[in-house]
Amino acid sequence: MSYLEEEDYSYAGEALIARPSIPEEVSDEDWGDYLFMRKNPKGKHIEQWQHSSGCRKFFVVERSTIDNTIYSSHKMCETQNRLNNEKS
Amino acid sequence: MRRVSPSINSAVINTARPIDFVFENKKYSGFDGDSLASALSANGLKVFSKSYKYARPRGVMAPYADEPNALVSLEKKGIYTPNAKATQVELYQGLNASAPTLNPDLIGKIKPLFKVFHKFMPAGFYYKTFMQPKKLWMFYERLLRSFAGISKSPVDLDSEHYDHTHHNCDVLIVGAGIAGLTASLELAKTNKKILLVDERPQLGGTSYEYPDDLVGETNQILHIKNIISQLEAHSNVTILSRTTAFAFHDENNVVANELRQDHLTPSVRNKKISRQRLHKIKAKHVLLTTGASERPIAFDNNDLPGIMLSSAGLSLLNKFSVLCGENVVIFTNNDSGYTTANYFAKYADNICLIDVRNKSSRVALSSKVKLYSNSAIINANGKDSVKSVTISELDSSSNLTDNRQTIVADAVLISGGFNPIVHLDCHTGSNPVWDDNLVAFAPILDKPCRSGAGALTGYIYAQDASDNASEQANNIISGSTTKLLASENYLNTVQFFNVPGFGKKQFIDMQNDVTTNDIELAIRENYKCIEHIKRYTALGFGTDQGKTSNVLGVAIAAQSQKLKMNEVGTTTFRPAYTPVAFGALAGQHVNDLFDPQRFTPMQPSHVNNKAVFETVGQWMRPWYFPQNGENMDKAVLIECAQTRNSLGVIDASTLGKIEIHGPDAREFLNRVYSNNWTKLPVGVCRYGLMLDENGMIMDDGVTACIKEDHFVMTTTTGGAARVYQWLELWLQTEWPELKVFLSSVTDHFSTTAVVGPNSRKLMESICSDIDFSQEDFPFMHWRDGTVCGVKARVMRISFSGELAYEINVQSNYGRYIWDKVIASGNKWGIVQYGTESMHVLRAEKGYIIAGQDTDGSVTPYDADLGWAVSKNKSFSFLGNRSLYRSDTSRTDRKQLVGILTEDKKLVLAEGAQMLNSTEDNKMLGHITSSYYSPTLKRSIAMGLVRDGLNRKGDKIVVSTAKGDKVNATIGSYVFFDPKGLKMNGNK
Hints:
The structure holds 2 protein chains of 2 kinds.
Chain A: H1 3-6, E1 10-14, H2 28-36, E2 44-50, E3 58-64, E4 70-75, H3 80-87
Antiparallel strand pairs in A: 1-2, 2-3, 3-4
Chain B: E1 2-3, E2 14-23, E3 26-32, H1 36-42, E4 49-50, E5 57-58, E6 71-74, E7 81-85, E8 96-98, H2 104-117, H3 125-130, H4 134-147, E9 162-174, H5 178-188, E10 194-197, E11 214-215, E12 218-219, H6 220-231, E13 237-240, E14 243-249, E15 253-259, E16 276-288, E17 292-294, E18 307-309, H7 310-319, E19 322-323, E20 327-332, H8 336-345, E21 350-355, E22 369-372, E23 375-381, E24 388-394, E25 400-408, E26 411-415, E27 418-420, H9 423-426, E28 433-435, E29 440-442, E30 450-452, H10 462-478, E31 507-509, E32 514-515, H11 516-524, H12 530-537, H13 550-561, H14 565-568, H15 582-586, H16 603-608, E33 612-616, E34 619-624, H17 632-645, E35 648-651, E36 656-661, H18 665-672, E37 685-691, E38 697-707, E39 710-715, H19 720-734, E40 741-744, E41 749-755, H20 759-766, E42 782-787, E43 790-795, E44 804-810, H21 814-825, E45 831-832, H22 835-845, E46 894-901, E47 913-915, E48 923-933, E49 938-946, E50 955-959, E51 965-971
Parallel strand pairs in B: 2-8, 9-10, 9-16, 10-13, 16-30, 18-26, 20-21, 20-26, 21-22, 35-45
Antiparallel strand pairs in B: 1-19, 2-3, 4-5, 6-7, 6-8, 11-12, 14-15, 15-16, 17-27, 23-24, 24-25, 28-29, 31-32, 33-34, 35-41, 36-39, 36-40, 37-38, 38-39, 41-44, 42-43, 43-44, 46-49, 46-51, 47-48, 47-50, 48-49, 50-51
Helix pairs in contact in B: 5-6, 5-10, 7-8, 11-12, 11-13, 17-22
């Protein structure tokens, strides 16, 4: 995504990071992972973006961190199943 | 050097239009069309600058954007331009230029000293010598900078303006030489939208340097002029000259800067149009036809003025009709030296051609030229400019022999081969590859929807470049691809970068004074990677970014490590290709347009009431109201005293306001706030504390329950946008099942807060349908009513500890209500107050400001706000889990406490460090808020202190900006009315 689009959209962190459903049952270390550990890959990365100067919707984008190629984009609701699977 | 009669074909100067200009306070004359470099050369100037490290004289070396030496400063004051390349500066009437070398007195004193130093100033010299002692580095650096051939930074505000524009096109063609023009015409015949950009003032690229290069039977210049006139008939083609494509971003986004008025006399520039324009171009396909630039061959003393690239000599001769010498020596490793010799044979009498090769050239040589094959220049002689060169014959394996002679020379033209200008292709991460056939680093052009043609891909001659450009243009039309690089070296270039040194300096990078020895030394000291060599020696730094030097540097590094060119590789090419003015990058985002300013509806009243404003986020808020020219401290004394004693009013409209609707609104509040919202009834407000997931305070504010499914949240002024984004993030990503709808209503309502013991009386005088008695309208409640005939929501909340009411009305009534409140309040001596008094009043009461007293590392417990954390909520609210981490649950964290100085008049600096004692330097924490309290008649401060909550009563010391340490005591941060009597109107 180029700077032209970045005036409309803003990056909102790595996607598909599920909040533990009962945080109190999670160890300090796992909670720390949830809070701070991010993938930072060279290549395909699954990210949240927001149409911040438009409809304000958050959505999910598969983007290459090397050359900004966009592989796919998804509505937030489309990722819920995947998120729920990871939670359980 | 002298002016010769202009070539009819290729001269770009108009001798009928002389132009007067000034260089170094001296008047000169040139012609319309001249560059500053050509005009000064025609006037006989050879020395343009002093070099960075050794203060050696330097002259023009290169033809255009690759020039390393001839840097100049242009004009003065608001139109001052630093570090322009004289080869790129177009002459205009009255141009005032100066050489960047500064302070001749200083140079006179220090230069002899430096001469002694020369031998001891190898690569890494600065690191090794000047970094110890560290304090002296600043002194050394300033001293060295005064020698550097680099302009001073501008100090005056830029008086000109700049703008940006966007393009969407089918094909962007970068470079309007023969290849770019040919491809443009081919593509123009389709219905594609074509954009052609070129950095030079005239289209044609280097055609003007090599006019006799034929296309078919036609002279190259006539050929390109024909193409240009044909292009004018095509409405789908846009041509931008004086426009440098300087950055190539992903997905074919190219940024180019157009110099729209730099070539005009400042007094005649059109004020209504921008000086420079940044073009942001999105292209479906990019065709790079950026050409190639010449590189030198290094030999001893190769930096003497008068020694230049052969293309620089040809540019002076064929474009500007300036003959750079009478005794011309040309040094080459390829056929282009023969072409150069032939052009000079038309004007000069003594021409010698030194060719390192033994094979014969494909270019026939004029009989006037004396040819020395199998030979190389090994040394140049002269003081301030070249006077002669020593040449040596080479044996069959290109080693020097003892057969030497000296040739008189006042101009030496070098061609060490041509480097494709690969920069733009490399900006997106494609490193060039050394091509043994082209004897150059060639572009790989491996990204989709991108191709190249012409000299960039090895097609040097006009006919070949033209044919290749047609082919590549047709590939774009048909969507096919063909071979990229020329398979033939049309110039018969051989790999020959430098001759062995003889103890004199052999310069690789002229702008940074990097020699072959420096590169070899760097390698000996184990800086072997080319990126390390670059940083250790400064090779390729500066305004030219090593355009003439990088490949030579790589070659020396390869030779001395016995590596292949590809094993060394290049350094990373990054934008910008050539320097771009900050003004162009900023465009119109300056001054008033830098950032939006937000005003409340009461703004005109504030201006009338002499408010001094401060910026809070984007808001302009009244800071204080000096009524009789008093300073801030005096104004604050009056404002605070009157508010505490009688009545004050503050514009609180800037607080963020978010409406929360929906059946799950209450549950949502329970999740995003640390305190409990389950039982908050309709008509009541509550202070809410918002934590991030790390358990740290991020914002706070009062939220009112309007209906069972409707709440209004307030946020800090600066945090409104961030909080709204934060709430949206959780609703949309993690809790889509919650039936909640948010809308930002900050601008929809304006808030007038009336504060002080007489506020109830005032409210009763302007609102008759609300009962303001303590029993009917207690603290932290809200009521709907009519204020001065306007529908209003009145909230009884307080950020000062006083009895106070906030009147919220629809924004367009904001000023009306504000003015009415002031008029009605006059009988109680109402005073308007700003943010400074607001801060003092809240600090006296120990109300925190999120973002000032907290900094993202403060938990509710650290801020002594544990009462605002609910432990009996079914859902684990944001940040809750983090409060149980081993680190956050420590009891000796930095905690928010009050700090009272022994000297009651002394107001500590915010940010000041606290220590146990003058002897113990262990840092305890820092002051977050500090004021003089008019109510308590002493200074007060809040601060984060290690284990502070357990240390109340302890004596500590606080450092001041002067370096003193003053005594203070830790205590509670509620300094005034700790029982909270005043907010119910009691004394």
